[in-house]
Amino acid sequence: MRGFLPDCDIRVPGSLAEALGLLSAEPGVWTPFAGGTDLMVVYNAGRLKATRFLDLSRLAELRGIAEEGASLAFGSLTSFSEIREHRAVHQHFPNLVKSARATGALAIQNRGTLGGNIVNASPAADTPPSLLAYGAELELVSLRGRRRVAYDRFHLGYKQMDLAPDELVARILVPMPEGRSFHYFRKVGTRQAQAISKVCLAAHARVADGCVAELRIGLGSVAPAPVRARNAEAALIGKPVAELPLLAARAALLGDMSPIDDIRASAHYRSVVTQNVLGHMLRELASV
């Protein structure tokens, strides 16, 4: 049974200050939303428990993509379509373009936002693995001020985040890659499009003097939250790209995952497929 809309109190603040004022006055009472694409799924299923909402869609302060120093800054209301169409994102962050394309249908991409994808905190979301691979940082804002947190420390567990009840994600800052870069993104789902991922892996590496000088691997759908594959990274950093230790990296990867059985895939399937995707990524890296 669907939710009953008249039960809901929806406010549409006209400024960021107004939105933060409401969150500060009644912490934990208001549920912010942007595109609302995930919210409507819960509403249509009749499982929407919250009744007081802040529609952030009119806040110009949370929009835009702009270069800021050595980073590209994304307003949290940046849509997936805007990511797909932005020249600088294509040039520097192709994984983000691929993950935006993998998110739902065009209607979802037009409506859904990068900040919403992060704060919805689904382990199966498509953009978080790419943000982890690129070393993204979040700028959080409240009436108390602004603070920044590394994205790989933002998710604390299933639907748990380093985000206070009076805070909003204002911007996502992604450092520009330096030197010779390698980018990889792979989503495994039931279909090529409009499917929730069973496994998702994104990687970004910097190669210097024939060796892996820097590597970050982001994983989705294999743990309670999007995670960095730090064990697998450690097994590969410093190694010559022509002699990457595939078996050791696959074994190390198992320590980065805690997959579950659910309606989309078994834990065994997720473990095996994630190792296979890692192997495919390493073969591509070796050919750089």
UniProtKB/TrEMBL annotation:
Residues 2-179 form the FAD-binding PCMH-type domain. The keyword Flavoprotein applies. It comes from the Bacteria. Pfam families: CO_deh_flav_C, FAD_binding_5. Keywords: FAD, Flavoprotein, Oxidoreductase. One of its GO terms (molecular function) is oxidoreductase activity. InterPro entries: CO_DH_flav_C, CO_DH_flav_C_dom_sf, Diverse_Substr_Oxidored, FAD-bd_PCMH, FAD-bd_PCMH-like_sf, FAD-bd_PCMH_sub1, FAD-bd_PCMH_sub2, Mopterin_DH_FAD-bd. PANTHER family: XANTHINE DEHYDROGENASE SUBUNIT C-RELATED. This is Xanthine dehydrogenase family protein subunit M.
